[in-house]
Amino acid sequence: MNAKAGLWRWRSNPLRRREDAVEAWLVLAVWIVVVVGGAVAGLVTARAAGDVFAAQRAHRHPVRAVLLADAPHGTTSAWPGGGLVRGKVRWTAPDGTPRTGDTLVDSGLKEGAGVVVWQDDHGGLTPAKPANPTEGAIEAGLFGAAAALAVAAPAYGAGALGRVWLDRRRMARWDREWDLVEPRWGHPTG
């Protein structure tokens, strides 16, 4: 399809209907929203997610902790390769005070075993190790792609519904015009 044929709805033409012009503007608006809106949403979301991951890397630190009770054996995990159970641990906060709390540890560990836990700048346990820069970039990219899709999909769907509505209007108008022309032909068709 060449550019001239693709722009026929924009040209002045005695066969161009009002619905054709509306459809041309609708398609243009949808593509602007899909391309520009999707790109902006994706970039903003990816950058925000990247900033969150960078902040987590800056404010989460590994620390050695001691398991205060035996971790249970043979617990079944809904996740393959999980093998983690909740255990009570003791560690030292950045200000030097001893702290205790619950975290996930490998099953079967004995009391007194050393484990690595992650803490924030105030010495509180954090749920998990922060994503490394590569993992953070991949996750940020995935979040950005999801945001772009979240903007583009409804816009594209609304445009498709608008085009269906315009097609129905065109067909109804064509039926009305056919009802006026058909009797002049002398014999009914269909």
Count of helical stretches: 3
Poorly predicted runs of 5 or more residues: none
Helix content: 40-55%
Radius of gyration: 32 Å
Order of helices and strands: HHEEEEH
Largest sheet: number of strands, sense, barrel closure: 4 strands, antiparallel
- For the secondary structure, the number of strands is 4
Tell me the structural class.
alpha+beta
Q: What's the overall average pLDDT, rounded? A: 85
End-to-end span in angstroms?
35 Å
Strand content: 15-25%
Shape: elongated
Task: Walk across the major sheet and give the strand order.
Answer: 3-2-1-4
Number of separate structural domains: 2
Model description:
The protein contains three helices and four strands. The model has no long low-confidence stretch (mean pLDDT 85). β2 and β3 form a beta hairpin. 50% of the residues lie in helices and 16% in strands. It has two domains: 89 residues; 69 residues, no CATH class. The protein has a four-stranded antiparallel sheet. The protein starts with a helix and ends in a 9-residue tail after the last helix. The chain is elongated and about 100 Å long. The chain is of the alpha+beta class and 190 residues long.
